[in-house]
Structure formats: structure tokens, C-alpha cells
Amino acid sequence: MKDKCPRCGAALPANAPEGLCPRCLGALNLATETVLPGEQPAAAQAPPLAPAELAQHFPQLEIIEFLGRGGMGVVYKARQKSLNRLVALKLLAPERVQDARFAERFAREAQALAQLNHQNIVTIYDFGQAGGFYFLLMEFVDGVNLRQLLATRKLEPAEALAIVPPVCEALQYAHDHGIVHCDIKPENLLLDKNGRAKIADFGIARILGAAPSQTAEIAGTPQYMAPEQQVEAQKADHRSDIYSLGVVLYELLTGELPGDKLQAPSRKVLIDVRLDEIVLRALQKTPELRYQTAAEFRTQVETVLNDPGAPPRPRAENAPPRMIKVGMTTVTTPERLGTFAGQLFHYRTRSHLMLDDRQLSFSRAGAMTNIPLSAIRDLSLGRYPRIMNPAGINFISVTYDQDGETKRLFLTPYEGFFGFPSQFNALIREWFDEIQAAIVSTTGHAPHTTPAEELGVPSSSIGLLALFAALMVPGGLAAIVLLRASDGKLGWPWVIMLGIVAAGLLLPFALALLGQRRRGNVAQPSQTRTAVVVVLTIVGTIVGLGILMSWLAITVYNSRRVPAPQPAQRLEAPQPVEVREVAPLEAKKRDVLPPAMIVEPSKEVAAVRLSQAEAELDRVTKLQAENLVSEEMVNQARFAVELAKAELAGDSTQVAKVKLNQAELELDRISKLHTEKLVSDQEMNRARFTVELRRAELAGDRAKVARVQLTQAEEEFRHASKLREQNLISESEYNQKKTELELRRALAEGLSNTPDKIKGP
Amino acid sequence: MSECFESTQAPSLFAATRWSVVLAARDKTSPDSAAALEALCRTYWYPLYAFVRRQGRSSHDAQDLTQGFFARLLEKDYLQAAAREKGRFRTFLRVALKRFMANEWDRARRLKRGGGTLAISLDTSTGEERYRSELSDTLSPDRIYEQRWAMALLEQVMARLRAEHTGKEAEFDQMKGALTADRGAIAYGEIATALGMTEGAARVAVHRLRKRFRELFRAAVADTVSGPEEVEDELRYLAGVLSGV
What ipTM goes with this model? Predict the structure, then answer.
């Protein structure tokens, strides 16, 4: 039977720390708690009484359910029998009844609220004492508080703003009655089912003009408190409420609390920039610089609410621009495009592209270029030089005036990296249309458009072509060298490959020629077809020619070449896979004793090992076919099979041979990595040692074997001592090395009974 | 559990948190940064183990892999890459492990056989027991990693909290339930009676405990991020992860 958490009701997981619910422990870190002054434990709370228990104290009410805790007390939902209406019953914890200070505040709250009668303030119906409690009878608000709402979803700016005017109205009303709330926060702002906002928990209300209590109390929720309120409560006035509301508004708009470095909300979310001013003003550290009344705050907010799409004012920076389209693009100029570098490094010009109703802008690495729509003289579509984009991608040419000069840019908007040319061109077309439409609506007329042929697009740079060719030739040669078959001959796949290489060499030239003939044509449907046909024909011819020539060349090559002798089968595995489940003890012995002293595994064991190794090879081969493991793993597995076969046959010479091969290959591999400094010297030495060891084993030279192992152990011990000085190794590891060394020494000196006596820690 | 790090940075309190010390250390063999890294690894090796197991490796492989990874982490220059990103230890560790598994695991398997130098000894055998006992069939490896991470952090905090009450274990046991109770539901009276103190004193003690828990939790989170601005975010993230446990 699983335990449940008493608070959240979730089942406790098996490894719950200290038997507590992890969920609640995590949530504990997020709670915002109102700090009450002078009390180390925050608000006193009694365990909630059962409704039945309560009922006897409140005969006039029908207690329905426990709602939760408010700022200072617990709240129940109830029904007033006489008037048949729903009410909220707030209780002060009974044990605090004796606390005069607390009772005083409670009474204050009740009387203060009783003076307020406003649709956006939770109405007080009654207060008093009953059965040892103080209680407040209030309007029941059927809804949620703002914190709960925020927890479920992020609000739209419009929704957030809509809450502010009624709250401001209520605050103004309260301020007019000389009452300051002092604890405005999302938890205290309720929203009923009709969307009406209500302020609750005027619990720490101070009545302006009343004598301040002897101990200057600082109360409120720290994150929402105005600076002057945090320092000294007496200095708090109605402007502190405005600050708190500012914090709430900031949080509603951006989802975060304003931190130490106050950032304008419009930098974090897409909202009207006029709101920045409003929020920042409410959040001024000095009360004098804020709105002086809640009514003023409200008016400002309502202005923005009612006037969303104002026509552009003379001062352009004030009116918010309307975003039309955003995306990514490459940018270049006609001059750059004609150069080798410009064509080669075109991909580096990626920028963000933004179109709004007033300008076209793109930014790259922080530098922003803005082109007012009214400055655009010409907007056209063109095509890139063939060498850069054989597929035929278009670009948008924008000619505009800036600072008295005429400038021209080529833009190619894109989305993602892969796609058909038609997809790219469709996007480019979209952008073209949008920019054109935006220009029309701003300036009233369409920009000039130049046909693609007359755009003066440079042709493929010869330099780039040369580079392309220069890359293909060594590439082809490298392919020949690297992939030589084992018998030295080159087969048919070679012919095809070389043919394609040759075609690759010649293709760019062909395309360049084509490009020269018909410069920068925008693909029209019929022209596309002929172009495709022509290109394909040329490509086909070249590939065919290439294949023919390479076949001739290869036939000549093969007839001259004598097949090389077959090298010993050298697989690349570093180490055999250890089949661990079967007799691990035997494996350990094998490492320690020279080959002649190996306890030969029984035939059954060897057979089992072989089938396990074969199964592993199978498995790994399948995985490798799906590219899930490296080639090395497969080779390892192959080695393991070889080894197991040799063992089963009882051929110790073969076993030794296989192991030697493995070790040599591993040394090869490690050496390569070592020259690139990818492995330590330690690794390198280990590989060398292993090779020597295997050689000695194959030769059956027991004494040599023991000597090699001794040298290796000495080396390892030296290394371990060094690490030990730097505290990078544990004592037990160090001792292991030491013991190993002693063991080897003893073996080398030919003491045959030592292995049983000396054991590691 | 106070560490005094002689960091070359400005003496702000934050510079002393573990991950930031590791990131700041230019010389990876400086004893402070090595000690800090080792402490971090000791606390958070289990989430990695669970991740590896969930990926389908056998228990034996997973143990080898985890040990090998940490040995490599303490040896090689993985930290150079991390310092550039200045991210959180949680994400760094997982990324580094994935890289390790892709590139180096084959070589690293020989560590065990050749008697590799294990600069950090982890109790990976208990990891397997724990892994089996935690039922989590439907979770992806990444998800498991995040959850076990959050739990590891939580356990660390609770262990510290308990350690701070040595000599007052009875008190701790009585009051620890208050950490997860609703604030209106804490039975101060019962606690007071059980511990033979006044109710007022019980309230104070409970409040102190909750406060201390929060401080320790925050400190533990700070240990794994690279700057104070990330603490809040990571706190929220972990609370979210824990709520799904």
C-alpha cells in the first residue's frame, strides 16, 4: 500500500527523501509568502477545523467547504441561511485570540474594509468574535486569484491590461477613503467567473492619518513592495500601491518579476512601446516620479487600450510599426557577387530579415540596416550565376536611395537548408509580393521592376570554377588510393565513380557556358523545360564520355598491374570482447600467469564461449548495418570469434597468433591517435607492452613474458605514484598497483607458488 | 559543509559555488577546481548511470561506462569546451556523456582491463539496485536523467539538513513533516507536546527549518549553475521536474 502525501495527495515514490513528497519539497522553494513583522514564523495558522465543528460556532451559517488560507487566516465557503447567499468566512486562528496585536489588526482590517463599498473590492458583510475566534464574513468570489491564473497560462497583453483599470479604480476609491492596501500582489487580486477583478486581503491596511503604532512595522510581500515601504513602513503611502501594481503589471506582461536591472517590457515581449513608459513610470524608485494617483495610472493604460493602431504620428519613433513578415535571408551586392570571394562565401551573409509597414530591415551580428519603403526605387527578381546555384534559385533585387546615393542589394530569403528549388523560389516570390504590397500601401504607387535579363547579374567567376575543378581532381585521386581492393585490381564500381568524377570536372564549365549564353533569366515555364532538357543532355553526354574514357584508362591500368600478394588477414579490433558470464576467474588467471600455466578451459566452456562470441558478432553486425555501432566493434567481435574457435580447437599457437595480430593492430591505431595527441603516453606504452607480451607468448618464452609484465607493472606503478602525489587516485588503486608489481617481480624470479599467496586488497 | 575556495574572481559569495569555480579555473589541475568537480561528480553520478541503463546498456557496461566517463572527465579537457558555453552542470554533464559514448567508450573499455587509473571511485554497484527498484518503464533516457538529477539534488539537500541537526535528531524527525505540509495544516500543538517545548517555540523552529531548507536548496542549485542569474530559472525548472516524479 503506497503512502500518499498529505498535502498534494500524490503517491509517494519509493525513494522519497526522508519520506517526504518530492513535489511539495520542490514547490516549497517557489512559494511567495507574506512576511508579517515581528513574527519569526509567518502568519499563524491553526489546522483547519472540520465544517461540522465550525457549524456549532456559527449557527447562522451553513459551512460548505474549506477554501484555503488567506493572508492571515483560513477561509471557508459558507451560505448565509437567512439571506440565502454564498459568503466567505475568514477565521483568525483561535490561539491567536489572546494576541492583542493580532486582534487589533484584525479589527482594523474589518473596519477599514467596512468603509469601502466598491464593485472591485471584496465587500465586508460582518465581523466579530464567536466561540473563541475572530471572524470576517465577506463576499464570496467564485473564481481564481491572479496567481492561479498565471500558473495555468500566460496572459495576452490585452488581457493583462484589461485588469488594470478596474483595479486602479478600486485603489483610487480606497485611497480617497484614506486607506492604503500595502500588499498588492497577484494572490490578492481575484477574478470572478465574469472576469471582474476584485481586490482582497486588505489585511495590512494602514489608515492614513491614524496614529502609527509604536513599533514601526514592515509588512508586505518583499518582491512587490515599493522601495520606501521596504525601508520603513511609515513612509508608505498610496504611491506604494501604485508601485506594487506596476510590478504586477510587469509580471503579467513579461512573465517575470522586474529584476535589479529593470528592462523595458517591450524588449522581452511584443507589445506596444507606449506601455513601456507606463510600466516604467509606475516602477520608479522615487515615489515622486511615479503616477501620483491611481486614476492617472488608469487613464494612461486606458489610452493605450483604446487606441491600438494609431496612424503614424509625425515623430516616427513613437508609433508602433506593424510587423508584416520576418525570416532569414542572405544578402549581397552586385559588386560582391561578381567576385570570387563573394560567390564562394555567399553563405556567410545570413541575416535576419524583417518587413514592417514602414521599412525593410535586416540585421547581422548586431549591425542593422534599415531601408525605408519609400526610399525603394526598384524591386525585381533575378537569378544567380550558375556556378553558385545550378538549381536556378532566384533573388530579390532592391535598389534604393540612402544619403543621396543609390544602392543595390540582392536578397534571398530562405527557410531551412534543404528543399527543392521550387520551394525556395516560392518563398522568395512571397517575400517579393509582400514587399511590393507594403511599398504600395505606404507610398501609394508600385516600385519600378526590371526584367531579369537586364539586371546585369555577373556570370560565374572563373576563379570559382577553377577552384571547383581543383578540388575534384585530388578528390578523385584520393578516392583511388584509399579504396584499393585487396587484389590490386580496380573493378566496375571504379569505372562508374571515375566517370562521375570526370563529369564533375567538366560540368561547371558547361554550365558556365550556358550561363554566358542566357544571362540571368528568371525561370519561365517553357524556358525552364528547354533549359532542363539542354542541361540534362549535356550532363548525360559528359558522364558517358567520362565513363568511356575511364574504362579505357582502367583496362590499361589493370593489364599492367600484377595482383599483390594477399596480406595476412588483419582485422582492426583492439581487444577481444570478454565473455564475462562464463568463468571470470579463468580470465583473471590468464592475465596473471604465463601461457604455459594456464588452466585449460574445458571443452564445454570453450564451446559455450564460441557460440556466445558468434551471437555477439551477429548482433553487432546487425547494429552496424544500421550505423548504430562503429566498425571497430564489429572487428572486436570478429576477433572474439577467431579466438574462441582457436581455443575450442585447443590450438594454443593459433590463439597466440590471433592475439598478437590484435595487439599489433591496436598499436597501429593507438600510434596514429598518439601522433595527434588524442591519447596519453600511458596508453601508447600499454599498447607497446601488449604487443611485446603477445610476441613472447607466441614464442613460448615464459621468462620473456614475465619480464615484459614486470616492466609494465613497474611503469604503471611509477605512474600511479605520480598521481598519488597529486591526490588524483584513491589509496586502494595505488595499493593495487603496488601489489601487482610485487606479484610480477615474484613471478619473474620464477617462484611458482607465489600467485596463490599474494592477493590484491 | 563549507568550502573556502580561493578563487581568482571578485570575492562575491557566488564565486564560491562549485560549478562556477570549475568553470573559472583556467588550470584544470588546480586543487580547488578538481575538488569541486569531484564533489559534483560524486553527487550526480547516479542520474548518468540511470541514463545509460535506460539507453539499453547492460548493468555491467553501464558501470564501466560511468566509471570510465568520470575518469575521463577528470583527466581530459572536456571542461575547456564547457567553459566556453558557461552553461549549467546538469546539461553539460549529459552532453559530455553523450559525446563520450559516441567517441571514446570503445577505448575506455580497456581502462578496466589494463588497470586504468580511476581518479574517482564511485559506488556503482548500489546504482544498479537503485535503478531496478525505481519503476520507470515509460520514461525516455533524457527524462529519467532529469528526474534522477532533481532527486539527487533534493537528497543532497535533505542529507545536509539532517546533518545540521546532529544531536537533535528527534527534533528533526518530528518537524520534517512540516516541510511539505500546507501552512494551514501544521499541527504545532502536537509538535510542541512531542518535543516538550512551547507552541511558540515550535512555530519558530518549524519556520527556521523551512527557511533553512530553502537556503540549502538554493545553495545546491547555485552549485550547479554558472551565475546568479540562472539560479531562479533552474529552481523553477527543478520544481517542475520534481512535480512530475
Answer: 0.78
